[in-house]
Design goal:
The complex is a heterodimer. By secondary structure, chain A is α/β, with parallel strands linked by helices. Helix content of chain A is 70%, strand content 8%. Chain B is globular and about 55 Å long. Classes of the chains: A alpha/beta, B alpha/beta.
Chain lengths: 378, 254
């Protein structure tokens, strides 16, 4: 059992004398640390004498303690500290600790008051944001360039990898996309059918569901599901490769990572998102049909209502959005993965950032498309 | 006076019931620097994992101060764990903390020292491994050698009785490696710390090792044990002689 260190303090004319006994290790010095340090702060000196003849155990923690006391005394410009009672081995340990003493690390906290820190923070945030936007746009340009140059040489695109990604990010997403769209169609039809029934207009639920699904909700719901599913997966995959220096390995082998890793994902995602959206639109309209059928209308009436109301322009407008969403999802996922830093939380951060950024971009671009279509009169 | 601190008894080392080393028996004395040696991939690190209780042995047991780490539970296990410090091959520093926080962590968890004291002690340990002024950095910004030294500083944070080092000098320059050797010898001499080191750095083995055991893949066992200088001078043991003199035989082994 550790016997705690004990301290006897004696102030003589020539020195402040500390006599220690017991175990001078990390557990033992708990009781004496503050007493000793405070006493040096208050005493007059002119020197410190440390008597260690009574101690029964001495290790690096004890040595660090003694060295600390010595430094405090020297910091007050006292005479040289007299340390006695150590056997040669322990003394050499103490010397080693003193000689290798590590100065406090440089202060990383910014100077200045609370206000300046606030302003600094905001400024740094803006700076980071602008820098991030710049790298994002530059990266998009790089991907676009790689895409164009690959179109000139289609053999350079890794088609097997593209198909593999298309299966994982596209085909395997069918169930979740179907579930979400079906429920959205069903719930929306149900909620709107109740007030519309009061006016005897419940068959117009078909118009509502058809138009909303084709123009907005189909593309948007699919894109958001894919942002959660594929963007995070891409970011995690590429982020892990980055941490394992696999991307560096690709680079030194002369295989551009953008062409090798990012392009297959962007192509697959761009082609799969519209297909998934068409599927989502159909399933969502089916969800609405369930409600309308339960209100006693035949399916053919629902079908005619939808087909008669939704135009080809609506459909094409919705699908064009999907191509853009597909590019955004894949590019964001890959770029965030590519920006992964070091450390255990880096891949998790990259995946989070990928999902957040792609959902924001999807929302922004959906707004842009709405304005554009309005201006074009579609 | 010799005092046994670690006993390895009939240890079959390996994963999933598959022994890659069979029937290892050896004792480690208090205060000695004990080196486990062997070719790449022969199972040195696995034996080390059994010794620090991370991996239950296929059969046999490892006693530290007479206690079996694998069967120890609760308080006796945590008391046993406090007696050992481990520096892993890949350093295993916590990436979410600074280097200094990595070292203060065990001190904060196990003692009631004031904050200033914890920091001072941790700085002293950083100084011991020549990492003064690097405490504020995240481990990701350290070089490979610095990470290794930071890991050793963390292993000795609580001044344990036994320190296990897995390849402490791999990937370090000769000067830093020699400094680590000096540090190990100093700590062993001044504090009576027992060191168990897995390495195949010949230079450092001759400098620091009191005892080595040599493991070999084919025989799945210890093929040589003793003082490295004696082994180097003794041609009777073929493989060990080749190893220590760095002279591979051209002809195939019989």
């Amino acid at each position: 059992m550790t016997e705690p260190a004990a301290l006897t303090i004696d102030q003589t004319d020539s020195a402040l004398v500390f006599a220690f006994s017991g175990h001078l290790d990390a557990k033992g010095i708990v009781g004496v640390w503050e007493t000793a340090c405070k006493r040096i702060g208050k005493a007059d000196g002119p020197a410190l004498a440390i008597d260690l003849s009574g101690i029964s155990y001495f290790d690096t923690a004890g040595a660090a303690f003694i060295a600390h006391l010595d430094r405090m005394a020297q910091g007050r410009n006292w005479e040289k500290t007299d340390i006695t009672g150590l056997d040669p081995d322990s003394f050499s340990l103490l010397e080693r600790i003193r000689e290798k003493h590590s100065e406090p690390d440089q202060d990383t906290a910014p100077s200045g008051g609370a206000f300046r820190t606030f302003v600094e923070n905001k400024g740094m945030f803006l700076g980071d944001f602008l820098y991030d936007a710049q790298t994002f746009i530059a990266f998009l340009g790089e991907i676009f360039w790689a895409f164009v140059s690959s179109l000139l040489h289609p053999g350079r695109i890794r088609w097997t990898e593209t198909l593999r990604v298309a299966e994982r990010a596209g085909a395997n997403a069918l169930p979740i996309v179907a579930l979400i769209s079906f429920i959205v169609g069903l719930v929306m039809a149900f909620q709107s059918a109740i007030p519309m029934k009061m006016f005897g207009a419940e068959i117009y639920v078909a118009n509502l569901i058809g138009l909303a699904m084709v123009r907005e909700l189909g593309p948007l719901m699919t894109a958001i599901v894919l942002a959660g599913r594929s963007a995070s997966a891409f970011a995690a995959e590429i982020g892990t490769m980055k941490i394992n220096e696999e991307i560096d390995a690709l680079t030194v082998m002369g295989l551009e990572p953008v062409r090798f890793l990012i392009l297959p994902r962007v192509i697959a995602s761009t082609l799969m998102t519209p297909l998934l959206t068409i599927f989502a639109i159909l399933v969502g309209i089916l969800g609405g049909a369930v409600v309308v059928l339960s209100l006693g209308h035949p399916f053919v009436a629902y079908y005619n209502q939808v087909v008669g109301f939704v135009s080809w322009e609506d459909f094409v407008g919705g699908i064009i959005k999907c191509f853009v969403f597909g590019i955004l999802i894949a590019a964001t996922g890959c770029i965030r993965g590519y920006q992964t830093s070091q450390g255990p939380s880096a891949v998790g951060d990259a995946a989070t950032r990928a999902v957040v950024s792609s959902i924001i971009l999807i929302a922004v671009f959906d707004g842009i498309f709405s304005i554009l279509y309005y201006a074009l009169g579609v | 006076m010799k005092q046994t601190i670690i006993q390895v008894e009939n240890l079959y080392a390996g994963y999933h019931g598959q022994a890659i080393m069979e029937d290892l028996t050896f004792d480690i004395q208090k205060g000695e620097i004990f080196v486990i040696l062997g070719g790449s991939g022969c199972g040195k690190s696995t034996v080390l994992k059994h010794m620090i209780g991370l991996l239950p042995p296929v059969s046999g047991r490892v006693l530290i101060n007479g206690q079996d780490m694998v069967t120890a539970r609760g308080k006796s296990r945590s008391r046993l764990l406090r007696q050992i410090g481990v520096a892993f091959q890949n350093s295993a520093l916590f990436g979410s903390m600074t280097v200094l926080e990595n070292i203060t962590l065990p001190l904060k968890e196990y003692t009631l020292l004031p904050k200033e004291a914890v920091t001072t002690i941790a700085r002293a340990k950083l100084g011991l491994v020549n990492l003064s002024g690097k405490g504020h950095l995240p481990p990701g910004e350290l070089s490979g050698g610095m990470k290794k030294r930071a890991a050793i500083a963390r292993a000795i944070a609580l001044d344990p009785a036994i320190v296990f080092l897995d390849e402490p000098s791999a990937g370090l320059d000769p000067l830093t490696s020699a400094e680590i050797d000096l540090l190990i010898m100093d700590l062993a001499r001044t504090l009576g710390i027992t060191f168990v080191i897995v390495t195949h750095e010949l230079e450092s083995i001759f400098t620091i090792a009191d005892t080595v055991i040599m493991l070999e893949k084919d025989t799945k066992g210890i093929i040589a044990r003793g003082n490295p200088r004696d082994l180097k001078a003794d041609p009777a043991n073929d493989y060990a002689y080749q190893f220590f003199n760095r002279k591979p035989k051209r002809d195939k082994k019989p």
